[in-house]
Amino acid sequence: MSGPAEFSEQDGMLRFKGTLTLARLGDLPQRLAQLSLVPQKIDVSEVDRMDTVGAWLVHRLARENDAKIEGAGAEEQRLIDQVSQVDTPAQIHAAQPASFLRVLGEVGDATIAAGRTLFGLVDFLGASVIAAWQIVLHPGRLRGNAVTRQFEVVGIKALGIIGLMSFLIGIVIAQQGAIQLRQFGAEVYTINLVGRLTFRELGVLMTAIMVAGRSGSAFAAQIGSMRLAEEVDAMRTIGVSPMEALVLPRITAAVAMMPLLAFYAAMLALIGGGLFCWTSLDIPPVSFVARIREVVPITDVWQGLIKAPVFGFIIAIAGCFQGMQVEGNAEEVGLRTTAAVVQSIFLVIVLDAFFAVFFASIGWI
Amino acid sequence: MSEERQRAQAPPPPRGTRPVIEVKGLTNRFGEQTVHENLDLDVNAGEILGVVGGSGTGKSVLMRSIIGLQKPVSGEVHVFGEQMIGRSSDEAKNVRRRWGVLFQGGALFSTLTLAENVEVPLREYYPALGETLLDEIASYKIAMSGLPTESAPKYPSELSGGMKKRAGLARALALDPELLFLDEPTAGLDPIGAAAFDDLIKSLKETLGLTVFLITHDLDTLYAICDRVAVLADKKVIACGTIDELLALDHPWIQEYFNGPRGRVAADAAERNADKPVPTMAQAAALTGGEAEA
Known about the structure:
The complex is a heterodimer. By secondary structure, chain A is an alpha/beta fold. Helix content of chain A is 72%, strand content 7%.
C-alpha cells in the first residue's frame, strides 16, 4: 500500500514520498542531513501518511532552508502547524559541573550531611531518654502490647537465623584455629580459642550485626513508611506521642533482647566448636566442657553481657532515628533503611573497639 | 471526524472496521476474589472511551490486562487485531510500540531527567535516530505536553505531581502511538489543571487521530472529552455508550453516578462549555504550562 519514507531532489524541489512516520523513517534523517542542494520548496503531496516525527522533519527542513512547504493536505498541514508551534529546543540532560567542582561539592555535602546526622542522632537520643524518663515516672503509660510484640519480632523470630549463623561460626573458628595450632602441636588450645572468642567478641558482635540487618532496618522501614502515610502525624494530632508508641517499645525490645540473643549465640557457637573438636580432634564433649570452664573466666561472659544491651540500644536508636527522618517519597525509605544499617553496624564496631580498650585497662583480660 | 477515523485505520495491516481493542470473556481473579467475570469490551478506532466504576471494580486491572501486565484467568484480548494473552514480550513488541501508557503517578524513571525519560522509548525502538533528532523530538513532545522548556533537564523528584503526569504523557506520546492508555490522568490535579489536561488530550486526539482508553473518576472529564463511556460494575461492563445513552438506562449505580449532585454539576458545566471550541495544542499547552509553573 505504501512504501517506506523516501525523498527525491529536483531543481530546488524536495519531494517526499511514502510513509513519513517514525516506524518507516529508516536512515532518512541521516540522508536529509547530507543534501546536495538547498531546497527552496518541499513537496509533500505524495506522502501517504505522516506522524509528528515526519511533520517535524519537514518543518525543520523548511525552517533551516527557508523553504516553502507545498502539497500538504489538511491533515498534514495541521500536524506541521502543530509541531511548528511547539518548536522550542530544550536542554535534555541535567547540567554537570566540572568534575573537580563536583567532587568538592560532594565532599562538602557529605560533611554537612554527616554533621547534621550527628546532631540529629544526639537530639534523638536526648528525646528518647526524656520519653523513657516519662515512662519511669508514669509506668502506666508503657505500651505493654507494643513492647511484647517487639520482643517477639526482635528476639524470638531471630532465634533461628542467629542460632544457625553462630553454630557455623563456631565450627569455622574451631577448624581454622585447629589448622594453625596443629603446627605447634597445640590443637587442644582450639578450645581456648573458641571459648574466649565467642563469649568476648564474636557472639555479641555477630548478633549485633544480624540484629542490625534484621531489626534495625525493619525499624527504619516501618517507621519510615508510617511517616510517608502520615500515620505519625495522625498520631501526634490524636495526642499519642510517636516516641512512646513507636520508638520506646523498639528500643526496649532491642536492649532487652540483645543480651539474651548474644548469650544464646555464644552457646550455639560453643556447640558448633565442640562438635568440631569432638569429630575432628577427638576431644569428647565432657572434656570440652570441663576445659571451657577452666579457661574461660567469668569476666568474658560479663563482657559480652555488658556490651550487648549497649549495642542493642545503638541499633534501635539508629533505626528509629533514620525512620523518623523520612520525608517526601518512597525512595527516601530505601535510602534511610540502608543508612540505618550502615550506621548501626559502624557504631557497633567503633564502640566494640572502645570496650576492648576499656576492659583491657580494668584488667578483664 | 470521519477523516480522523480513516487516518487512524490507515496504517498497515489494514484492519477494516475491527475495533482497536477487543476484550472477550475476560476473567480476573485474585485468590478467592473475582474481579472480572466474562467481561466484554470494544474500543473503536479514533474514539475516547472513558471507563468508570466504583472503587475496587477493577478499572486498573482491566487496563493492566489489556496492556499485558496482568495475566487473566481466562478470556481473550485483541489489540490492533492481534491476540495479546500468552504472547511473549518479544512477540508483543510490535503492538507495544503502537501504544503509549500513562500511569497514575506518571511512573517516570527517577534516575533520568524528564527529557531523557521521553527519549527512553525512542532509544529502545529506534536506536538509529541519531542524538540530534532524538533531542529535537524529546523537546517538541515536552512542549506538546504543556511542560515549560526549563523543566526538561530536571529530575522527576524536582517536579510537581501535575508536571509528572504531563511528563508521563510526553513519554507515552514519544513513539507517536495510535492508542493511548490513561489511568486517572486528572486525579490529584487542581480543577484548572485538570480542565487544561482534558483540553490537551482532546486536542492531541483531534490532531494525532489517537484512540484513547481513559480510566477516570472525574465526571467533568467524562462530559468534556469522552465519546463513549463504559461502566464497570458487578464484575462486568454493564453498559457502554454515550452519556445520553447511559442516562436512559435504569441501572441504580449509573443513575446515582450521573444524577448525583456531582454528576449534575458536571453536566451543567459541560452544557455551558458546549460551544467552546477545542483549543489547539499550543493553546492547551500554554494553558497547562502556565498551571505547571504556578
